[in-house]
Amino acid sequence: MLRATWVTAAVALAASVLLLILGLVTARGEEYCVEQPQEFPALGVHGWRGEQLENAAIIVRTADGMDLERDAQVLGVMAAMGESSLRNIDFGDWETSGVTNPDGSRTTSIGLFQQQEWWGTVEERMDPATAAARFFARLRTIPGWQDLPPSHAIHRVQINSDSEHYAPFQDDAIAVVEALSGSCPA
Prior knowledge:
Blueprint: H1 2-24, E1 25-28, E2 31-34, H2 51-65, H3 70-84, H4 93-97, H5 122-126, H6 128-140, H7 150-158, H8 170-181
Antiparallel strand pairs: 1-2
Helix pairs in contact: 2-3, 2-6, 2-8, 3-7, 3-8
């Protein structure tokens, strides 16, 4: 009896989720776009899904709250894609590959943007909205950032060793931002 109840509940939950997805997401070609802003496509965008899209939505909302438009939103999502695959991780380059700072000291990178300790406390760097706000605040200090190639603008904020590191993420970041904003490419 108890097992039948659990099975019935699981089927009802799955049906509810499916109806929710069908109500929020409309297929357009091979892409999925959200009909309403602030939601995210449950089926994913270019392979990014779940927690990754939730974090991307936080980045987009943070930029929007700072009166930064689509170009900045794309840069923020690109940066987090390149730094952490849009996952809020509590480890960084030192732990994964022994990378050190230019002065030879151990890196302290954590979070979506792999920000080191001079960006703030552990709690601040592990909070996606605060980390995004710090990224965007620093982006605003880069003269002419809007005119730089996107990867170069991010590189000036993140100060990593390769100015082209973020370039492979540009198309995905554009698709994610468009999906989260409710606009889809034609």
